[in-house]
């Protein structure tokens, strides 16, 4: 049976990449060792991490005055590292349009109880279960603030920001975990971008940080591991980095480049998600909770049937036919199709057929 993996993360990876990793698994580039067995200070690994960085710079058009870091601790550790390194003595704004953005804000509030900075909730759509991207009045922003934190793609709720808000020149810090390399952004429009790798890049365990050099702290942060300056000065090799994950990320970057880069990925993703949105919008049976088309994510598409009982049945029948991990997040309910870069178009077409059959069977 063909399996289509709709998981929101860790998520589907390109088959070609997995095969390449398999072929090199026992003997990487004639070393007689697996990548996992290489010293992180060896020449072969140095080549891997350097070309991973180079490829990411090419794919995202990262300007020279930005550092690229490969860290650990997931996107969630960035929720603390960001205020710790960037916000001390300042205000820091949080635009909260989803559960992950709320976590970032909550973490900042927690830190501000012991450290001198002021996290401010700039806008939130929590009152309506994060079903839209909230707007805010830019004139309320203090231009001296450290940053405005946003989440470019709300993985759980299925919304996204494609046109960046006016922040009165205050640097935007963006959690791009679920649409990095899947939608086009200009890196120069951000002060910092970060992402856990497990959605669009590679296996869990690698966290990408792209940070403008002038924002890197000059005074030491509380701990070396949480200090961007130390991580940057040591080129992500302050301690042992997640070597195998970085290698997998490099293979994914090569693959995305070979397919035509982020422009091509963004186009394919719009096409894939467009098929599903169109079908849902035309159907009286299925619903998408995000009503404003401009707010809709091309990466994560939540949808429901007319009842929680039918949702449950949908997930069961889908699973038995190879559509796995399609159950929605418990906070939203229903289903969620995560259509990341590596998710094939055929999988969307097969899902649409399944959805039609399910509606025919249960819709009357
Ligand atoms: C998955 C996700 C996270 C959490 O990432 P971890 O690497 O598990 O810490 C944070 N933000 C967004 C937008 C996500 O999708």
Would you write up a description of this structure?
The protein has 364 residues and is an alpha/beta fold. Helices cover 35% and strands 15% of the residues. The protein has nine helices and 13 strands. A seven-stranded mixed sheet has the order 2-10-9-8-5-3-4, covered by helices on one side. The two termini are 30 Å apart. 45% of the residues are buried. The structure holds pyridoxal-5'-phosphate. The site of pyridoxal-5'-phosphate has 12 residues, from helix 3. It is found in: Cytoplasm. Its EC number is 2.6.1.52. Catalyzes the reversible conversion of 3-phosphohydroxypyruvate to phosphoserine and of 3-hydroxy-2-oxo-4-phosphonooxybutanoate to phosphohydroxythreonine.
Describe the sheet with the most strands: 7 strands, mixed
Strand content: 15-25%
Low-confidence segments, given as residue ranges, are none
- What small-molecule ligands were found? pyridoxal-5'-phosphate
Q: What portion of residues is helical? A: 25-40%
Pathway: Amino-acid biosynthesis; L-serine biosynthesis; L-serine from 3-phospho-D-glycerate: step 2/3
Modified residues (N6-(pyridoxal phosphate)lysine): 199
EC number: 2.6.1.52
Subunit structure: Homodimer.
Helix-strand blueprint:
Blueprint: E1 4-5, H1 15-23, H2 43-60, E2 66-71, H3 74-86, E3 91-96, H4 99-111, E4 118-124, E5 147-151, E6 153-154, E7 159-160, E8 172-175, E9 192-196, E10 207-212, H5 228-233, H6 243-259, H7 261-282, E11 300-303, H8 308-320, E12 323-324, E13 335-338, H9 345-362
Parallel strand pairs: 1-12, 3-4, 3-5, 5-8, 8-9
Antiparallel strand pairs: 2-10, 6-7, 9-10, 11-13
Helix pairs in contact: 1-6, 2-6, 3-4, 6-7, 7-9
Bound molecules: pyridoxal-5'-phosphate.
Pyridoxal-5'-phosphate binds next to helix 3.
Enzyme class: transferase
InterPro entries: Aminotrans_V_dom, Aminotrans_V_PyrdxlP_BS, Pser_aminoTfrase, PyrdxlP-dep_Trfase, PyrdxlP-dep_Trfase_major, PyrdxlP-dep_Trfase_small
Binding site for L-glutamate: 41
